[in-house]
Amino acid sequence: METSIESTTKMQIGDSNQQVNDTSENNELKTVNDDTDTINTTTTTTTTTTTTTSTNNTQINNDDLKSLIIFNLPKFTDNKKFVKLLEKEGITGFTKTKKVVHDNFGFVHFDKMETKDLIFQKLDGKMLAKCTEPIKVSERNFEKKRKHIETQTKHFEKKYKQEQIQQEGNNQDADTETTLKSIEDVVSPWHQKSYSDQIKLKHEAMELILKKSRKAIYKDTKHAVPKWISDISKINDVICPLESVVESVEKKGYRNKCVYTIGFGIDDKPVIGFALGRTANGITIVGDPSNTLIISEKSKQIKDTLQDYVRAHARPPWDKWLHSGFWRQVTVRDFTTGESMVCVQVNHKGLTQEERDKEKQALKEYFESQPIEKQVTSLSIQEYDGISNAAPVDLAVEVLIGSDFINEKILGLTFQVSSNAFFQVNSKTTELLYSKVLEWARVSQDDIVLDICCGTGTIGQCISKQVKKVIGLELAPDAVKDAKANAIVNQLSNVEYHCGKAEETLPMLLQTRKVSIKEGCVGIVDPPRAGLHQDVIKSIRSFESIKKLVYVSCNQNSFIQDCVKLCKGTSKTMPGKPFQPIKAIAYDLFPHTELCELIILFERIE
Ligand SMILES: C[S@@+](CC[C@H](N)C(=O)[O-])C[C@H]1O[C@@H](n2cnc3c(N)ncnc32)[C@H](O)[C@@H]1O
């Protein structure tokens, strides 16, 4: 599975699978106001006032409400300690404070100008113990953003109502968090756990999935429970033996793909990073991931190079509330071959063709002018004026430097990967995962392999020399184009690819008997997060020369449903003999997150 640290939180660092995807977005004022951690301090004799008729010249009305941002605070200081720190420095008169834990900044609200002066005087430039940089106090004038916020609020209320209706009842796990997350929590939510604890937790989680699968099959087949299920002694047992979780080869900087959001940081400067919450929850602030664990140094360097350009550029980043702005997101891929790809998404609405061409030329020249260590293999641009950053997968990409793909090496073969095509995000551990798939498939030279959801053809091509033929089925046209090109580069003549939905191409293929019913056949399925379409499972079941099926799951909740369909007794909806799970093993392709890949070997019950 590919995950994008997109903010599905899809960290399109996030694809269907994982880009750390960008469904997370932000409204900074809303975040501050909503924050339950905010303290209304009683250390002050001044109270927030709404009057504008005060005789006190220094008192300001709500329209002039001010706050300051204090940078370079100790990371783990919470709001209470922050208040103590202010008091210790002799600062009084503030009305509200907020310290973002795990980050180095906090806010102080006040309603008298003396307080502001006092904060500057006492804190600005002060060096605190355990800090490497002196405190920096910065003005934060909400007035500047008032209009913007009013529009946002209206939009938010409308959108929030719609989302409430949609989510009610069918999405109880929805993230409704309205406070800012730290960038580490967005990018690598398990960063505070030791790696051995993470592996232990993942093993327990996979064990639970295998237990739940057993229960689900039992429940679904009440009157005709498969014998192998009733043979499992304990009701709460797993459906098949689970081997130990295989650790990631690299624990840090392992991600070869990140989908960064281009937006505004806490200090209102353009930032390339990840949203610190969900837009639906009123959060659009983007955090800088430079100090996070799982992004490669190369990827960080590329996003910094682009960030310098965006900051110096006249056009602003895309505003997720106002639906205007130019820079939207950037996908960065960097492979173990040293090749790197940058695909920048911009909003071209309202620009003339001449302006658009000028922007492209300038971006190209900027990247070409970089020193050799900052050069990229491929630079492309995607123009998109939709509301969400998630553009259609087949949206055109215009190449500015190099070609529209870069190459990665897996198990000695070369794979070109287009910007729109899926590729596992952790290349080195993927080699271990694929090796296990090949081992468990136990193919022979007479076998035909059906590589269902084959992406750029990786698994099928790695096994092709050991079998008679590989047939790959894949939805994304760019991935199929890559798979065909990869077969040529890897000098493989026994592979063929079919583009389309597997639920349509697989039944057609089997009906037209392109695969003879007598041939030995091994199925390999590596579906997206939603799992397999019912018709794919139906075809696999009815095509009885598939004796073995290796299932690679990136979303184990959808796996449970597929497992039931593969294993339940024969019926009209699920024809053919059922399968039985034989063994399972998980691979940690995503250290410091809760995700992992699970392989399950199924065999046909004869
Ligand atoms: C988890 S990826 C696996 C790709 C490949 N096996 C690999 O390891 O690189 C899932 C793939 O399924 C494809 N896909 C999604 N829905 C599909 C469908 N209905 N029919 C065929 N392929 C589909 C996606 O485009 C993606 O390439």
From TrEMBL:
Pfam families in the record: tRNA_U5-meth_tr
Keyword Transferase found: yes
Binding positions (S-adenosyl-L-methionine): Q424, E474, D526
Domain RRM: 66-142
Biological-process GO terms, alphabetical: methylation; RNA processing
Record region (Disordered): 1-56, 155-175
Residue ranges with Low complexity bias: 38-56
Official protein name in the record: RRM domain-containing protein
Active-site residues from the entry: C554
Polar residues composition bias: residue spans: 1-26
The keyword Kinase appears for this protein: no
Domain of life according to the entry: Eukaryota
Keywords, sorted A to Z: Methyltransferase, RNA-binding, S-adenosyl-L-methionine, Transferase
Family indicated by similarity: Belongs to the class I-like SAM-binding methyltransferase superfamily. RNA M5U methyltransferase family.
GO molecular function annotations of the record: RNA binding; RNA methyltransferase activity
Taxonomic lineage of the native organism: Eukaryota, Amoebozoa, Evosea, Eumycetozoa, Dictyostelia
SUPFAM superfamilies: RNA-binding domain, RBD, S-adenosyl-L-methionine-dependent methyltransferases
